[in-house]
Amino acid sequence: MSDGHGPTPETPSGWSAEQPPPYSAPPASPWTAPGSHQQSPHGAPHGEQPPPQRPYGPGPQPPYPPHQHPQPVYGAMPPPPALRPGIIPLRPLQLGDLLDGTIKLIRSNPKAVLGLSAIAALLASVPLAVGQAFLLNSVGGALADPANVSTAQAELTGLYGFASQYGGTLISYAIQFVAVTLLTGVLTRILGRAVFGGKLTAGESWQLVKGRMPALFGVVGLMAAFMLVPALVFVMLVVVFSLNASAGDIGWLAVMSILFIIVYIAYYLFIRTRFAFASPAVVLEGRSPLDAMRRSWHLVTGDFWRVFGILLLTSLLVGLVAGILSVPFTIAGTLFGMFGAGSAATTAVSAVLIAVGGTLSAMFAYPFEAGVAGLLYADRRMRSEAFDLVLQTAAIEQQRQGWVHASADELWHPSNSARS
């Protein structure tokens, strides 16, 4: 019996008052058998097709709730991000990871990295700057007083000219050989700890790496021998050929010289790529010079062109940035030296400006090239030896302990590789 406020207990459609009707009638099966006593949901007799319905009517028919998007029913879950306790993710690295990791290495420890690089760059730049300043002073004196051109030419071709042109360069290269070798060892040790998020001061790094310096100098000496011996042999052959050649053979000598330069550039790039990881192997793995060079050759094998491309691109980027940093100071120093000839003050200012430009460019170039080479060494070990598994296990343990232990340096030993 109705109470006057709702439908009767039994409605014509058959739904009880306790069970309110759904939002729409249950959909009819599209497979209705002929002769059945079912009515289509649109009132059409059985056996007749209902009028076609537009799939998208004028009214709102959102297939999903607002501000939501359909999610795939099937699909793999994305892999978790790689563990990154320090400057790089502990997985095989891409080019962006290498460059970003090197920048993070410099930013995470600027006093040790940039401070040591500045000292090495300054020591290597000062002799070269002094020699160039005296050379510019002589050239500027000849330009200011054409009557002294012959005197200036005599100075430039004599002992003074040789010392100003080549003496500073030779001394600079000798200092650079020592300073950059020491710097590479110290920076490599700082990098090895920074991978785990740890920091080393310059003094701490030196204490850890000073025992490896003889082996590191051995590697650099062997590299220099590989580079210089072919050039010296060719120069000797050219001298002998020039002494015995006639005027018609000068053309052949020029062609052979050009061919040698092309071949030598290719040879230089090959040697540099093959032995790019010798220094990290000496510092981080404790190897001897020859063993470290064999180790580098083995790591590069199978991925030569990628290593070559990354090192070449790094050199181009470093050269571009270093040139931007040094060019203004070099131009200013050149102008002071040439147009202020005859004055000791302008010569000193010229030398200072050239030295500042060289120091700024080298202070950036040294750690960046060393950082990319060190991280590329770690990447090759991850790819060829599954070394990332060793690093991840150690990083998890160090995170559990809450600090980076000094024993992390021992993980770089090849005996800890997963595939050793």
From TrEMBL:
Top-rank taxon: Bacteria
UniProt cross-references to InterPro entries, sorted A to Z: DUF7847
Pro residues bias spans: 19-29, 48-69
Domain DUF7847: 94-364
Coiled-coil region: none
Keywords recorded for this protein, A-Z: Membrane, Transmembrane, Transmembrane helix
Residue spans crossing the bilayer: 113-135, 170-192, 213-244, 250-270, 304-331
Pfam families in the cross-refs: DUF7847 (PF25231)
Record has Transmembrane as a keyword: yes
Annotated region (Disordered), positions in chain: 1-80
Name this protein carries in UniProt: DUF7847 domain-containing protein
Organism encoding this protein: Nonomuraea longispora
Taxonomic lineage from the root: Bacteria, Bacillati, Actinomycetota, Actinomycetes, Streptosporangiales
